[in-house]
Amino acid sequence: MPIDLNQRRPIGDTRLELPALGFGAAHLGGMHEQVPGETAYATLKAAWDGGIRYYDTAPFYGRGLSEHRTGDFLLDRPRDQFVITTKVGRYFRRPDDVSTFDRSPWKGGLGMEIVWDYSYDGVMRSYEQSLLRLGLDTVDALLIHDPEASIHTDEHECRMRDMSTSGIKALQELKRSGQIKAIGMGMNAAESLTTIAPLVPLDFCIVAMPYTLLEQEAAAVGMQRCVDENIAVVIGAPFASGILVTGPGPGARYRYGPASKEIQDKVAKIQSVCTRHGVSLPAAALQFPLAHPAVVSIIPGGARPEEVTSNLVYAREQIPPALWADLKTEGLITSDAPVPA
User: What angle do CA 314, 318, 323 make, to 5 degrees?
Assistant: First the structure.
């Protein structure tokens, strides 16, 4: 079913509602390549002109650059006409030597040093820094960002303790006072839905990789938990980091790196079924996750205006039910995966 940009879905029991299609602003921080300021502005304008009214960013994206660019664009738009979400867990300080500072993994990101902090004070400091970078006096929701053990290694237990005993109090205080409408968590690993998300009360999660047209098995238990607990899910990477747009071939990317032969072979089979039904691969990838009862929105990114306008076309493309049936018959999506009507 084509995506209705005017449809808004509730986030748990909160006052927040999200459009079915949003814009993920990570690329504006220089995720894979440096993005000139005028291109970033044009990309956001293409989203706005196309009817997109939900924008997700984070301090980490470009070490603050994505928030600057997103806020600069939204500053002149009526505040009651858009939703903006950002994240906590990191704040910034000036490095000792700016001239030698390594800004990786961002291409052209700001020269600011990350300080990890999930405590009450760290969350509040991150929140206030984000408001300054955005140039806005409110955000609609804050998400606990990147809580996985693979990121924090030896510091993981300590940081999660800070989050669950101290940082969550800051978020709940901001929600009670009306400064934010909802509390979320942004994650990359499927197991985080069942091992880390339960550490704190949440209204929604942004899931960046585990549930896409390419894979559903790993996230099945966690996604069902979200349904059972009335925790909404936003799909942050419906194109699995690129390969579900480009298809297989040289330069195809999956999970932020080069796609393996196994992944490329599976995508080639999915693409073959799409071609047989006259459907573009990106349209199938974009529309598929929204059928899951936990999912309220998808937020594909973009580094150029034409990428956004293409996504809007994919969102409206008609897809016959037989496509989903054939993908299940050929074992390319799980047999019990919810599919668009």
Answer: 100
Torsion sign over Cα 43, 48, 51, 55? positive
Q: Among 109-113, 215-219, 285-289, 329-333, which stretch is predicted with the lowest mean pLDDT? A: 215-219
pLDDT band per the 50, 70, 90 thresholds, residue 272:
very high
Residues with Cβ within 8 Å of 331's Cβ and at least 6 positions away in sequence, in order, are none
Which of 61, 127, 211, 254 does the annotation list as catalytic? 61
In sequence order, what are the residues at sequence separation of 6 or more whose Cβ sits closer than 8 angstroms to the Cβ of residue 110? 62, 63, 64, 65, 68, 103
Question: With 80 as the cut, is the pLDDT of residue 1 above it?
Answer: no
Domain boundary assignment for the chain? 8-329
Name the nearest CA neighbour of 27 among 1, 5, 55.
Answer: 55
Which residue is listed with tokens 């970078």?
133
- For residue 34, which of 87, 102, 105 has the smallest C-alpha distance? 105
Q: Which helix (H) or strand (E) holds 281?
A: helix 281-287
Whole-number Å distance between alpha carbons of 320 and 336: 18
Strands (E), the chain: 8-10, 17-19, 23-24, 54-56, 83-88, 90-93, 113-116, 141-145, 182-187, 204-207, 232-235, 253-254, 257-258, 295-298
pTM (2 decimals)?
Answer: 0.96
Catalytic residue flag (residue 314): no
CATH number of 8-329: 3.20.20.100
